[in-house]
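Handout for the seminar on molecular recognition.
Each group receives one record of this type.
Step one: identify the two inputs.
Step two: read the structure output and locate the region that could contact pyridoxal-5'-phosphate.
Step three: write two sentences on what you found, then compare them with the reference statements printed after the record.
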Amino acid sequence: MQKTKKVYLDNAATSPMDPEVIKAITEVMETTFGNPSASHSFGRSAKAVLETARKKIAKYINAEAKEIIFTSGGTEADNMAIRCAVNDLGIKHIITSPMEHKAVLSTSQELADKGLVELHLIDVDTKGVVDLDQLEKVAAQYPKSLISLMHANNEIGTLLDYKRVSRIAKANNCLFHSDTVQTMGHYRFDVQEFGADFLTCSAHKLHGPKGIGFLYANKKLNLKALITGGGQEGNHRAGTENVMGIVGLAKSLEIAFDNVEEEQEQIYAVKKYMIDQLKEHVSEVQINGLTSMEGGLYTVLNCSLPPQENNDLILFQLDIEGVCCSGGSACNSGAATGSHVLNAIKHDPNRKAIRFSFGRFTGNEDVDYAVEVLSKLLKPTSVVV
Ligand SMILES: Cc1ncc(COP(=O)(O)O)c(C=O)c1O
């Protein structure tokens, strides 16, 4: 029996591990099993590995080592920023957008439901651009708020004008948290230039391991812990550190930051190629979000198919044909209500939106196959009722 060809176009959900990262993790698993908090030599060598990774990461983003707090990934880092800001930093208002990742939206909503904060949602337009004039007014009305706006939207890729957000935050004594899970390592980062108090990272979005990430927290904040019960991470996050994951995270960031410009060019070329191919072979296709290098995340391409009967089955059919992509974010795939991001940009519910997302290992041949399968499935003769 002939095996189905498979193409992976879901790198924004998670990305395949880079062989160099696997090598680095394997090495540390073989050599360094000590508990970094132990005072004997095994513990000390694990501690050395841990702190070397922290310093390396901090250097890449122009932060101080003590500003990097390792977490179990992006969700925990987002939770920590928001909950610690409310628990310990006197935040009574959260200003965010309806397009944020659920790690931000649900967390903020929960805090609002408990009466701990008031939530203010800033409008977004049909391309996913946040209304920063409105932000300016709301921040002036509620100074000392927490502004939480993501750097790039994970479903449609639209980028935030973070410099302006940072200026607005500073002018109104607000804290600024940006979910940078989809962008850390995909762009160069300088925390001073970015001007946020909190940034987040997750290794599995950049060819690293799952279950590890970090929160950058500006040292001036004197942040307390969210997870308590031990003095690890400078008293910021209790629990024995995931040393092998942290080594994998540092390696994945090293590879990413050492090759940012080359990868941007390479991956953006694949994205542009796919846009051209879709426009040529899929009639009435619409591209969602901003697609220029300046306006949109180069790893994400979200498109809408013309309304037709088999739209709801299309992802399933693509999967059967070996094309792996997603209908929204992977974290939302169980939700019955549809994508909150697509709702926020007033996407036509009669059209099916598909997110294709690219990584280091994606090539034009993957795009060719995906577009070939998609156009075949959309031919009237293949309609499944
Ligand atoms: C924008 C954004 N924030 C947060 C997360 C959650 O990250 P993690 O899977 O590491 O918990 C994701 C993952 O899908 C994401 O895309």
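Reference statements: The pocket of pyridoxal-5'-phosphate is lined by residues 73-75, 78, 101, 103, 150, 154, 179, 181-182, 202, 213, 329, 331 (CB under 6 Å). The first strand starts at residue 7 and ends at 8.
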